[in-house]
Specification:
It is a single chain. About 30% of the residues lie in helices and about 30% in strands. With about 350 residues, it is of the alpha/beta class. The strands form 4 sheets. It has a 6-stranded mixed β-sheet, sandwiched between helices. Helix 2 packs across helix 8, helix 4 packs across helix 5 and helix 6 packs across helix 8. The two termini are about 30 Å apart.
Length: about 350
């Protein structure tokens, strides 16, 4: 999988590889309309979904085995976790299941999460769902902050730049960004999981038009609408007869926190202890994942995130995964499958 370069938007070769592997191992497998690979074993309820993403950030890294580790783009985020899911499912492929096991490799997680949105819209519903992201194999992620992508736009009346009374759209949007930061600053000073934060994704424009794309990380206990309202009110207050300002919301997903007393979490507690000899930490993260979309849509489902790999190596030039932890994570996932479906 690591040797197949698959940055966002170029997942087809890896999807074909996974589809062929699943079919060879006895899965009822298919590729859907957006390029997700979905393989099934068993039938009926309960249903357990193991879902990882095939895409990576850009930048191929050499694939090598060095000192008990494998290097390569996606080793941590998140081909390692996805490969562990496929291998764990393969281990039970010839075992009669009391329910359905669904394994999916999805597209576009590093983009706009088009893959998991397609799973949701096509009705791939499960009572239990595990999303493959690095959690050091010993921990289970039970919560992610929400995320809103917005664009602030400015348009001014054109005029000669030598005229001191002519407004400049790029200057105006920089002023607005400063006002947004001041408005959010008191909310950023709380603990990371309880703070609203805002960062710039891109800036473009010139004298008469300008645009700034922002990412808002929405804390537990806050709704995305509240975060958007803070920015929108700031933008509206910046407008005038000569300066037109408006906000566009590109995408939003609410924070998600799973039930730490669920049967799924209990299965992970026992399985991690079996293989690592210690209780897993149940952690909440400041990022956002496909788990947010799925868990917020299928509210009755138990949803967590799990996988091998050190998340501090996400998107870095040092991306690598420990082989020992990777193999043990396969065992953990196999035991979770058995505890829920046997």
């Amino acid at each position: 999988m690591l040797e197949i370069y698959s940055p966002t938007g170029e997942e087809e070769e890896l999807a074909t590889f996974l589809l062929e592997e699943m079919e060879r191992d006895g899965f009822d497998a298919k590729m859907d309309g957006v390029g997700n690979v979905v393989g099934k074993l068993g039938d009926g309820k309960p249903r357990l979904l193991l879902c990882g993403h095939m895409d990576t950030v850009p930048g191929f890294l050499p694939v090598k085995v060095l000192g008990g580790e494998v290097t390569g783009r996606g080793a941590v985020d998140a081909k390692g976790p996805l490969a562990a899911m496929v291998m764990a499912a393969k281990k039970v492929a010839n075992t009669p299941l009391n329910g359905t096991l669904i394994v999916s490799g999805v597209v576009d997680e590093e983009g706009s999460s088009r893959g998991v949105k397609e799973l949701i819209s096509s009705g791939v519903e499960a009572e239990y769902a595990v999303f493959g992201e690095p959690s050091n194999a010993r921990n289970v992620v039970i919560g992610y902050k929400g995320n809103v992508h917005v664009s602030v736009n400015v348009r001014v009346k054109p005029g000669h730049p030598a005229n001191p009374n002519v407004k400049n759209a790029s200057e105006e949007i920089i002023k607005i960004w400063g006002m947004i930061k001041e408005k959010i600053k008191p909310l950023e000073e709380k603990t990371p999981l309880r703070s609203l934060s805002c960062s710039i994704e891109s800036i473009s424009g010139g004298r008469s038009r300008a645009r700034i794309d922002l990412s808002l990380r929405v804390p537990f206990g806050m709704r995305c609408k509240h975060a958007v309202d803070i920015v929108e009110n700031t933008v509206k207050s910046s407008g005038s007869e000569d300066v037109k300002c408006w906000l566009e919301v590109a995408d939003a997903v609410e924070p998600y926190e799973s039930n730490k007393h669920s049967r799924l979490v209990a299965a992970f507690r026992k399985s991690v202890k079996d293989f690592f000899g210690e209780e897993p930490r149940l952690i909440r993260k400041t990022g956002t994942g496909d788990m947010n979309y799925y868990g917020n849509h299928f509210r009755r489902a138990d949803v967590v995130t799990y996988g091998p790999g050190d998340p501090r190596l996400d998107h870095t030039e040092e991306e690598r995964i420990n082989i020992h932890d990777y193999l043990k994570s396969i065992g953990v996932l196999e035991q979770v499958i058995k505890r829920l479906l046997l």
